[in-house]
Fold these 4 entries.
Entry 1:
Amino acid sequence: HIAVHHIDVDDIKKLLNILDRLVDAGNTVVVIEHNLEVIKMADHILDLGPEGGGKGGYLIAEGTPEEVSQDGDSCTGQFLKRVLARG
């Protein structure tokens, strides 16, 4: 388990490069993350919510980053939309 929120931007880029190489080698990689820079690189997102704990755990949105960013029910999607617009 690696807490990405404690890693600087350069190290996040290195981590994403490693994950890409694992996928390119035919592996399935599952990442549980809140960092939008990491989330935007996913092939597929499962957005759970709407909150944490007893008020969460429900599937709110599912799809590519672009699809989730267009889902009006997804709080993650609303913030992800801004990150995707920046490139």
Entry 2:
Amino acid sequence: MEIGLTTPRDPIRIVQKKESICLVQPKTGIDVSKSMYEFSNEFLTSLSDVDGFILKSRSPSCGVKDVKIYPSEEKGGGSSKGKGFFAAVAQEKFPYLAIEDEGRLKDFKIREHFLTKIFILSEFREINKRKSLKELVDFHSRNKLLFMAYSQKYLKILGNVLGNNDKKSKEEVFKLYEEGLQGLLARSPRYTSNINVLMKAMGFFSDKLSHNEKGFILDTIEKYRTGNIPFSVPLYVIKSNVVRFNEERLLDQSFFNPYPQELVEMRDSGKLVH
């Protein structure tokens, strides 16, 4: 409706025309590429306080990755894959935000990264508004293990920004921290990084464990390494011991709860994952 099509409307598709990608309605021959681009630009420019988008899977306007691009307006023929028009503009305008389609979010790893990114960016955005260095230091401390799992390189960069040895202004510190945070959250953690953080957390209370308890935890982590159990299992085992021994340095770490438990789903593609 926003781009001038009637409701209900006939299907639209993305078509490759020489060097250009066009959004057309095959039945009528209407090309809505310009209208869709202008609407997307205007709508996205009007937004404020946005942390991410959930878009429609495989939609010629909103699909994030698996949108069919046809060689012509006619039926049949092969197709390639690409982005929907709106999704492409959203990713161009907000390259560091969490942007996914609802189909890809059925994959647990993708969904976990998406939700983690949403809540981290949202919390930082609110702190950034207040420009409170104390809140920023607290934010960094609570997320230290999570950031370590994402990227030790960027964790070090963020730590150096907070150290502020160059005596930069508060505004510059927040700007540099935001840039580092965007780089850190660009991809999901590797399983090897998760294991490193699990082992580091275990180090806080390992001297309080019996030989059998330590062996059980290490065996659980090994089963995760070999792909026999999901990450949630060793994570829960470590977390339970953090609570058991009241390890205050770890109790508030977001690594154990990166997003609200209400958003945790029991099943993912038929497999128990959480």
Entry 3:
Amino acid sequence: MPARWRQWTLMLLSVVAMYWLQPALPIRNLDFYLPLATLGLALGVWAVTATAPFSRQDALALGLTAAVVIGLSATRYLIPELRPTPSRPPATAIVIVIIAVASGFGLPLWRWARGQGRALALALLGLIGVFIQMKTPALTENLAAGLRTWAGQSTDLASVNDLQWLGFSYVAFRLIHLLRDRQSGRLPHLPLREHLTFVIFFPAFTAGPIDRAERFREDWERLPTERLFAAPRVTVGLGRIAVGLFKKFVLADTLALFALNAANAEQLQTSAGAWLLLYAYAFRLYLDFSGYTDIAIGIGILFGVTLPENFDRPYLKNNITAFWQSWHMTLSNWARFYVFSPLSRALLRRKPRPNPDLIVFASHLATMLVIGLWHGVTVNFMIWGAWHGVALFIHKNGATAPAPGTAAWGSIRAARPPGLWRACC
């Protein structure tokens, strides 16, 4: 592949893959419009974070993206086996009108938003609002009913499964990262081509890792000069993919047969069986998630982008702090950077300053609540987040006392469950 085409190829592949990976949905044409909404969010955030004038390269990136979307809609005239979309796309004329209207609003928005702190704040609040809407089951079900009405379909069947927006959780956190870093002045200007590829980079689109723009940029700028098909790179990339496939489709899927779930729980007769199902569930969760991460990292290596690691043997850690420093590390780092640290600094600046233990407790609790609610805005995930936040605070405060070798230390060691912190998650 010619070096000058590599960055363009990655951008266009990511756009196509986003549509190809999106699962089919019951609401008519929604599995086409949701990826289009992802592009809209990404372009909207670029409009308010860009600091350089609109360049010819930006115009070309925008035009090519629109052309790909219109081209995908035109596949509605092909037989189903030849379509890259999960269902028949909407009429091409409708897609063209949507893109034209969005462009008509987008250009004035871009002109107004550049350098506007208020625009960044509004974009951030709007994105958080969309996130809450999509992560709250009751709100999602109401939205599904409204969309079914608009599509002329029965609202009796409306459910949260109608709105399976692939990759949204990861895209939202990448976009929040870009907005917050622009607010703090840390974000360099990203041309539209680089910005769009970073947000929807196809290996990491569905299950992470959550990369950072400054780290991604290092690989992006080296891309034209990299030897993509050098034997060491191909060997490492394919090896990582093979490990991920083995973890996911051999180990995790085998454990899924007897891991803890509602059906298996009803058949339990002994406590030993309950522990077996629980540990099978814990290992299945890890192998499934880390397997996907291995596949994503391996594909990224083949295309010249080294994604960050997400796991570091978390089940071998001997305390909950070490566990969270090695489990879904990119999410933990994101939460520490955008929740824990800012909240801690804000509380430290208060007059009078709160008790240091209260600051640590509030920061841990808020951080883990955000991580919990990232999975879903439900009571269960709030309890899950609060449980881990309290546990992290207790571990931090108990890390220095009592001292090893004392009777109190022995009591704590005896009461602590061995290994597998994740089993309680």
Entry 4:
Amino acid sequence: MINAITGLLGMAMFLAFIGGLAESIGAAPFVAIVVIIGSMALYDYYESIRDERQKAAAKTPQPNQEP
């Protein structure tokens, strides 16, 4: 859970920083690069959280299911 919170905080700071750069520079190619890199970073964050939840679910003992 800590990884999700710190990851979200880090992602917000990263996106704010590169978003500010894109706004101040204003060149269309740079804005496109920022959008692509930002979306890649968000997708990686999503995959990281998903993998963490799957590992946590695998560690949880499942009750015996007898037919």
